[in-house]
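Closing statement on the adenosine-5'-diphosphate sub-project.
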Amino acid sequence: ESQLNSNYSFDNFLEGDSNRLARSAGLAVSNKPGGTSFNPLLIFGGVGLGKTHLAHAIGVEIKDLYPEKTVLYISAEVFTQQYVDSVRKQTRNDFIYFYQLIDVLIVDDIQFLSGKSGTQDVFFHIFNHLHQNGKQVILTSDKAPVDMQDIEQRLLSRFKWGLSAEIQNPDVDTRIEILKGILYRDGVSMPEEIIEYVAQNVKTNVRELEGAIISLIAQSSFNKREITLELAKQVVDKFVKNVKKEITIDYIQKVVSDYFQMDTETLCSKTRKRHIVQARQLAMFFAKKYTKASLANIGSEIGNRDHATVLHACKTIDNLIETDKQFRKYHDDINKKFSI
Ligand code: ADP
Ligand code: MG
């Protein structure tokens, strides 16, 4: 079982400036698995931008061109579960042996390995074996290797051996093309101005773009309403708002700590180091702004502080935004990630 999803192909992976490098590196690897300098090929980028799609497309294409090769797609999470099971059942060697026989190994979301030293260790050995034998490794991650935390140095340095290709958020023209691709796939036609409206207003990522257009199509067919610009506005506005509501305190902590390149434990720690205190205060500030949580709740989730501390944090940040230009830049950068 290769676990490949043949619905994800190169044909339906639309190309734009945001993914051109990753896509063409993927094609190069598909044509000559193990035979290019892109080994490993690491595809990284934010959520919903097409990493999993592209990873499958590469596997599917290789299987097409080289049916005799064993190609395996696996998420790092499932890989980790399998490894943990193998330790429990004392079949760790079988586990390693199984992976060493694969010609093309695709591991999705390797950031999931962070902090899991046992799994990292076993993956390191499998990786080395495959690489030494000219087998192809393809990895995806939500961040660049330099920004990965709690991954062993020796593994990180392996990740950098080949090519790291970023997928970025597509620009509006590419979003229009992607929407047209989805409509074509689903056999739905829609006026150009509506497609443009959706593309201009759903900016977060491709997954949400897809979600918005699908919900628009569903609205029109359930209610037997023609797809008008007015309906599009209703559906898209509601969609964008709903997405916004999903901002949680956890998510805020993650975004802020990623931005300052610290882990969330550090963000929440008792330290009085100024830059950490300010990062924490900023997280509290955003939690107040973007969630419905009470000050007490925010305090208890972000480092177990009381509501007065959160209130003080919010005032401090208001003040810093006004008086400190550099700090305002931090605020604005991070704020962009929450506002659509
Ligand atoms: P990620 O793994 O980066 O979170 P996915 O690969 O799951 O993102 O992509 C999210 C959705 O967007 C999928 O349905 C995928 O098919 C679609 N998608 C992403 N990029 C493209 C693209 N360039 N062309 C067509 N569909 C895309
Ligand atoms: Mg994915």
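The chain has three domains: 20-166, 172-245, 249-338. With this model delivered, the sub-project is considered complete and its resources will be redirected to Aim 3.
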